[in-house]
Structure formats: structure tokens, C-alpha cells
Design goal:
Layout (H helix, E strand, L loop, with lengths): L5 H4 E9 L7 E8 L2 E2 L24 E5 L7 H21 L2 H6 L8 H9 L1 E2 L4 E4 L2 E3 L3 H6 L17 H18 L8 H8 L7 H14 L13 H8 L6 H23 L12 E5 L4 H10 L31 H6 L28 E4 L6 H9 L3 E4 L5 E4 L14 E2 L9 H9 L6 E4 L8 E2 H11 L69 H5 L2 H15 L7 H35 L1 H10 L1 H21 L3 H10 L7 H16 L4 H25 L8 H21 L1
Parallel strand pairs: 4-8
Antiparallel strand pairs: 1-2, 1-14, 3-12, 5-6, 6-7, 9-13, 10-11
Helix pairs in contact: 6-9, 7-8, 8-9, 17-18, 18-21, 18-22, 18-23, 20-21, 22-23, 23-24
């Protein structure tokens, strides 16, 4: 990359600024990290960020090994304490004191949180993309949270000093002795057993080799002491700073990308029960820093941090902490726009000393070799560059996209053209000194803003829907798409078929079912909050749907166990009461038929034009019911009752009311509602037949009865939803 200067890193201009959460804009002098752009013409938009709404990641067809997230061994803590008094000053000189002390604290992994934040990762920008903006883990985070220096020698630099080279040979010889034990490898336990407290002249180097292999720069998954860390350990043991920060951050970016790609691949799996559909992923980076990063910045996803003791590292605040129970972590991340902490390290914490770039007043400093190392580190945080890992892998670092994390204002980030660089060239560009230029350092009390142009650009992009959710503006979408299908299927958790997913997107119950072929959408939820579909059905259709649910629900493989049990219980109760009603109605109708043949003939003559269609309809309904519930007689008796006699109609109604009353005593609230609706429907049918046959029913105030029963139905509906 080209030589860096203050002009490349920072620019100052007057702009119309506004809070990132919105509000009244103010025109003022603002400072932005470069490159930025002042035009939104031609920039692509950003769709809604991708989510993983599912919980219980342990059920996904994915096995992730967090080899860089090592458990804390009591023996390791003893070794740290044993060497602390003799070497703590050397650790501070090399800039690794906090890193070593942080290794004795345990960050308990929250898999759901790690997967949810990884789902927000963009492989093109190495940033997390939220509906409200971008953020990322930066060099500042790995220095403050991890305790890893960002300045110093390269992790790949060979040893040229003769004495150092001899020490390296001795370390290699000790490693060989461990390999020759029963373990047959340079296991870390064997290394500690051999060298801890041995009084060996290379014990300190051996200790640092253990720390680097286990907590910092792991490149293997078998808990071994790795030879590539010996040269680093030897330099650190002499107080020579080594830039561990960029190598650690490169490994974090790499592993977040691998985890994100795995989650994307899981979304394409349909038959996740097959053994060959299980993904296995080994991650080597210290991703505990990512979880701590989330806890530092997202108040809704953390509990109250532990108070720090004097001299403890920042990471100690989260020792053995468990996050709060959150129903959907991905949604919680998206809703933290108002509370996201852009500069958590600017807040006062008891027993924690502010770095020198968190002063109470803003200032300009002249960059040069004599400048304080912490201020030089701050300048390093702001440089667009490529990070070089321990294995010579390279990752892009784009601080200009997250300027507010450093107290800088944010404008639309400009595009950084990729360049083909070797690891050596990339490291040279990273470590190139900055001399004779002024650097702006904001006050720790300053709250950065965004340009109105940026806010308009981001908000208009975030309102757009689509699956290109993982790509921020200015980057091609095709590299980061999740092939999640259309509509609500895009919200399916990894490894679960889309047809099993239930979301509340959209209105009505039809929106809640993707592929339950045995269910008609409006019949398939007994607990639907909106009963408008049921109200539009005739009572007979509703009874049929209830029987369908009982028949199909027991055999459905897609329903969950708990849902199936609840549905069967409720359906049994409903069907029992329905059968009681029909038995009462049928017995009364038989009496009507036997006693009123003459009236039947008269009525049939009057309504003959309607009787044949009803018979055809009854025949069709009978065939349908026979298939799912065997209720053939119900429709036949119903067809006969349509030609009832005025002389016996009152008895029929009384018998039906008695049946309703008796069944209501045995059924829960939900069944009472169905019976009352049936009662109303029956009387409405009598009213219809009276109108068709011009039949008068002496002594029956039909309108009053209908009105009364409709009020009962309304009351029972209200009671149903309160329950």
C-alpha cells in the first residue's frame, strides 16, 4: 500500500451532522477517517441484515471446535503467579502484561451469542453489519481487551542474534524430549510438567511459549507447544515488543469468516438428519475476545460486570460471567441502535487506568519516534491496511468504516482498491512509521455523529428487503448471500428445513404455514389470535375442520410433540361436544320427520328448487367426511332437518338447546364457544327455512332468541381470548 500520511488517515471539513440515532442536524467542523466519499450516486444499497432466529444451536447439524478458546488450568495459574514477581516488569516493557494476566480468567462461551454475532459478519469488509450501521473488532479491542501489543517486531521475523538462536535450539531440544514421552507429541501438560519450577535458565521462555501456543497464536488443534512461537517468546522474554495484535486480529477475522461461511452452508441443507450433512469446523483464534467485545458494547446482552481489582486486566470484568437469557440474540443485536456503546473504554471503570489517548480534552499531537507508545498505537488503530497472520495469511482492516469507535465522525466510507501484496510488503506498509505530521485525538467525552448524507444512505438501504443482507453498501452482494430461499424461509435456522419454520411475519394464519400439505392454512392453528377465518366458516365446515385436525394431527410428522398433545386434547373435547349436539339434534329431527309427513311434503313442494342442490352438497360433504372422520350420518340428518314441520319445530329447538346445555357442562371454554356458535347457526337455518317455505312458528320470538345467542357467542369469544 502507499506511504501513509495524516492526509490519508484523517480529513477535516464542515458538514451537516446528526446523531446516528437521528435528531436535529447541526452544521459544524467534523473529522473523518479516510477514505470517505461525499456522493451517494451509484452506490448500491444495503438490504435488511440476516438473522439466525433459531435457538438451541446444539441441535444444529454442525460441530464447532473452539480450539483457541481454551479452558483455564489451575496449574497454569500457579505458573503465572510463580513468575509474576520476577518478570512482571519485563512483561510490561514488552506490552504483554495484561495479556498474560488475562489468561488466568475464564470467559464462559455463549454459543448462541457467538453464532448470532457471526451471522452479522461481512466477509468483504470484515465488519458486523447491523440495520443501524457497521461495527467491528479493531486493533484497539485486541490491545485493550486481549492485552496484545499492536507495535513492535513482526511475529514472523527470524532471530539474527546468536544468543537468541542458541536459546531457540534449547527450546527445540526440550520440545523433543516431551515428544518422546508416552504422549508422543509436544503436549502442553507434558511441557508444564517438565519445565514449570525446574529452575531451568530457559523456564521464562518456556512459559511464554506455552502462553503463545495456548492463548494467542495457536495454529494447531491438538494442544501442543508449537515451534513457530519460540522466536517470539525469546524476544518477549528480553522485553522486546512483538506486534501480536495484528496477527491475533487477522486470526479472528479469518475464523469469523469461516464460521459465517459454515452458517451460510447450513442454510442450504434440507435433509439435516443424514450423518454426511454434519459440518465440522475447527477454529483456532481467541474468539473469547469477540464475546467480550459484544458484552462491552451491547448492554441488553450482558449482566452487570464484575468490579475490577487494582492491577487486573480489562477482561477480568467478565470472569465466569453468564449472559442473560435472550429469546433471540440476533434480534436483540438489531434492536440495540439506541444503546450501542461506540466507545466503551472511554467510560470510567473503578481500578482501570485510561490509556493516554482517552484524555479529557481533545488535542493535536505531532507524530514522531519520540511520541508516547500509546499515542503511536492510537495512530496505528486508524490506518487502513492489511493484517498479516502467524501463517502469513492476510486480512483487510478498514477502520474508516467504523470511525465512531475511535471518536471520529462518520461519513460514507470510500472504497479501498484491493492490491496484490506479499506478506512482507503488507507488513512493511503496516509498520511504516508516521513522522512529522499532526494527529487529532478526540476527548473521551466527545460523542461522534454521522453526516446527514450517511444517515440517509444507510437508512434508505436498510429499509430494502432481500437476501443480500450481509453486504454493506459499496460491495458486491453475490459474495455474501445466504441462499435461504424466498419469503419467510430466509429466517430458517441453520440445518432446519424451511417448511418446518414458523414465523409471525405477515397477517393472518395463512402466513404461518409454509408446507403443511395435510392442513388447510386457516384450519391448522387452534390458538390463532385472529378468529376471523373461523367466523367466516359455516358451523358445518368448522366441525369438519375440527375432525380433519384430529385425524391428520395425530399422524403429522411435522408437528412438535407438545403441540400434538395439546391439539389432540382440545380436538377430543370439541368433537365429543359436537357429537353430543348432533345426537340431540338428530333425535329431535327423527321425531319431526315421523310426526309431520304432511308438512314435509308441503315444505318440499315450496322449496323443491333448493332441495336437490342441497342433496348434492350433502353427498359431496358425506364423501369428504367419510375420508377424514367418518361423520356421514351427520350430513344426512342435516339434509333431512331442512324440511321440518312448524308444529314440531319448537321441540326440535328445545332438544338442541338441551344437548348444548348438557355438553357445555362437560367441555372447556373453547368447546362452549363452538356449541354456542352451532346453536346460533341452527336457529339461523330455521329462520332461513321459514322464509323460504313461508312457514309461521307460533309463540316463538325468533329475532329475540337469535339476538340473545349472538350476545352469548360474543361473550364466549372474549372469554376465549382472555384465557
Amino acid at each position: 500500500m502507499a506511504a501513509q500520511s495524516a492526509d490519508v488517515m484523517l480529513e477535516e471539513r464542515r458538514e451537516l451532522m446528526v446523531s446516528p440515532t437521528g435528531g436535529n442536524p447541526t452544521r459544524r467542523i467534523a473529522r473523518f477517517l479516510k477514505p470517505s466519499t461525499t456522493s451517494i450516486n451509484g452506490l448500491p444499497s444495503l438490504p435488511i441484515p440476516f438473522r439466525i432466529p433459531g435457538t438451541e444451536p446444539q441441535k444444529w447439524p454442525m460441530k464447532v471446535y473452539f480450539h483457541g478458546w481454551k479452558s483455564q488450568k489451575s496449574k497454569w495459574k500457579m505458573w503465572v503467579e510463580a513468575l509474576h514477581s520476577a518478570h512482571h516488569s519485563t512483561w510490561k516493557k514488552a506490552g504483554i502484561y495484561d495479556g498474560i494476566m488475562a489468561s488466568v480468567y475464564e470467559i464462559r462461551r455463549d454459543d448462541e451469542l457467538v453464532y448470532a454475532i457471526a451471522a452479522k459478519w461481512c466477509l468483504e469488509t470484515n465488519t458486523f453489519v447491523f440495520p443501524w450501521g457497521e461495527a467491528t473488532v479493531t486493533l484497539e479491542d485486541v490491545m485493550i481487551l486481549g492485552g496484545f501489543p499492536v507495535l513492535g517486531k513482526s511475529v514472523s521475523a527470524p532471530l539474527k542474534d546468536k544468543e537468541m538462536a542458541e536459546t531457540e535450539e534449547r527450546l527445540i531440544a526440550e520440545r523433543l524430549q516431551v515428544v518422546r514421552t508416552k504422549a508422543q507429541k509436544a503436549c502442553q501438560n507434558g511441557w508444564m510438567n517438565r519445565l514449570m519450577g525446574s529452575g531451568s535458565p530457559i523456564e521464562h521462555e518456556a512459559f511464554l511459549s506455552m502462553w503463545l501456543s495456548r492463548f494467542v497464536l495457536s495454529t494447531k488443534s491438538n494442544c501442543t507447544i508449537e515451534k513457530h512461537v519460540f522466536s517470539i517468546a525469546i524476544r518477549l522474554a528480553k522485553g522486546i515488543p512483538v506486534a501480536l495484535g495484528p496477527a491475533v486480529l487477522a486470526s479472528i477475522y479469518r475464523d469469523l469468516g469461516l464460521l459465517k461461511q459454515t452458517l451460510m452452508a447450513l442454510n442450504k441443507i434440507v435433509n439435516y438428519k443424514k450423518k454426511d450433512s454434519v459440518f465440522t469446523l475447527s477454529l483456532l483464534a481467541p474468539l473469547r475476545l469477540v464475546q467480550a467485545w459484544v458484552w462491552e458494547r451491547f448492554p441488553a446482552l450482558r449482566l452487570q460486570p464484575k468490579p475490577m481489582e487494582l492491577g487486573e486486566p480489562r477482561l477480568s470484568r467478565w470472569h465466569k460471567m453468564k449472559g442473560p437469557r435472550v429469546e433471540n440474540v440476533g434480534v436483540a443485536l438489531d434492536l440495540e441502535r439506541e444503546r450501542f456503546e461506540w466507545r466503551p473504554y472511554a467510560r470510567a471503570v473503578d481500578n482501570w487506568d485510561f490509556p493516554k489517548f482517552y484524555g479529557e480534552r481533545e488535542e493535536w499531537v505531532l507524530m514522531g519516534s519520540g511520541l508516547d507508545k500509546e499515542l503511536q498505537a492510537f495512530a496505528q488503530f486508524l490506518r487502513v491496511c492489511k493484517l498479516v497472520g502467524i501463517d502469513d495469511s492476510m486480512e483487510c482492516y478498514f477502520p474508516h468504516r467504523v470511525g465512531m469507535q475511535f471518536g471520529m465522525d462518520q461519513d460514507i466510507p470510500g472504497h479501498v482498491h484491493p492490491r496484490n501484496e506479499t506478506p512482507e510488503v503488507a507488513w512493511n506498509n503496516y509498520s511504516k512509521p508516521i513522522n512529522d505530521v499532526k494527529l487529532y485525538i478526540p476527548s473521551r467525552f466527545f460523542e461522534a455523529d454521522v453526516t446527514t448524507r450517511y444517515l440517509e444512505w444507510w437508512n434508505s438501504s436498510a429499509k430494502k428487503e432481500g437476501n443480500d443482507a450481509l453486504v454493506p453498501p459499496g460491495f458486491p452482494a453475490k459474495h455474501n448471500l445466504t441462499d435461504a430461499g424466498e419469503g419467510n424461509d430466509a429466517l430458517v435456522p441453520p440445518g432446519f428445513p424451511a417448511k418446518h419454520n414458523r414465523t409471525d411475519a405477515g397477517e393472518g394464519s395463512d402466513a404461518l404455514h409454509h408446507d403443511h400439505s395435510a392442513f388447510h392454512a386457516k384450519h391448522s392453528r387452534m390458538d390463532a389470535g385472529d378468529s376471523s377465518d373461523e367466523d367466516q366458516m359455516t358451523i358445518r365446515e368448522m366441525f369438519k375442520s375440527i375432525r380433519n385436525l384430529k385425524c391428520v394431527g395425530k399422524n403429522s410428522e411435522t408437528a412438535s410433540t407438545s403441540t400434538s398433545k395439546t391439539t389432540v386434547v382440545r380436538n377430543d373435547s370439541l368433537i365429543n361436544s359436537v357429537d353430543n349436539i348432533f345426537q340431540g339434534v338428530t333425535s329431535s329431527e327423527k321425531g319431526i320427520e315421523n310426526a309431520n309427513d304432511e308438512s314435509n311434503r308441503k315444505t318440499a313442494t315450496t322449496a323443491g328448487g333448493l332441495e336437490r342442490p342441497k342433496e348434492d352438497s350433502s353427498r359431496s360433504n358425506s364423501e369428504s367426511v367419510t375420508m377424514v372422520g367418518g361423520a356421514e350420518e351427520v350430513n344426512e340428518k342435516e339434509n333431512e332437518s331442512n324440511v321440518g314441520s312448524p308444529a314440531m319445530m319448537g321441540k326440535s329447538e328445545k332438544a338442541m338447546e338441551d344437548a348444548i346445555r348438557s355438553s357445555a357442562k362437560k367441555a372447556p371454554t373453547m368447546s362452549r364457544l363452538e356449541k354456542a356458535m352451532d346453536d346460533t347457526s341452527k336457529i339461523k337455518e330455521m329462520r332461513m327455512m321459514s322464509a323460504i317455505g313461508t312457514i309461521e312458528i307460533p309463540g316463538l320470538d325468533l329475532e329475540a332468541r337469535i339476538s340473545k345467542l349472538e350476545r352469548v357467542v360474543a361473550g364466549l369469544k372474549a372469554e376465549r381470548f382472555r384465557v
